[in-house]
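Risk register update: the risk of archive-format incompatibility is retired. Evidence:
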Amino acid sequence: QVQLVESGGGLVQAGGSLRLSCGASGLIVGSNYMGWYRQVPGKQRELVAAITSRGNTNYADSVAGRFTISRDNAKNMVYLQMNSLKAEDTAVYYCNAKASPYVLGGYWGQGTQVTVSS
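Archived output:
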């Protein structure tokens, strides 16, 4: 049974930093396409950052240069370091795992709330 558990969300002032963590069980993060998504009420969930099984990363334009996705294969964890946070980064952040970037769906965590006060 696959389980993804996010942690690290919270309330932070604009300009501050947070690091989100995603712990995985039932799958190997280093063998999957791991992504962080976010969603605000009334809007579609959007991809924020992703890392391939080869370690290649990609970012949404809105977070490039501020956010960094990484993984620790030994701990089977994926992280999202978020710096220079803005009020518009406020959202529920979800961890996702799937076999490749070309498939839909995959496995989702329960989400963690990030609130940035201006």
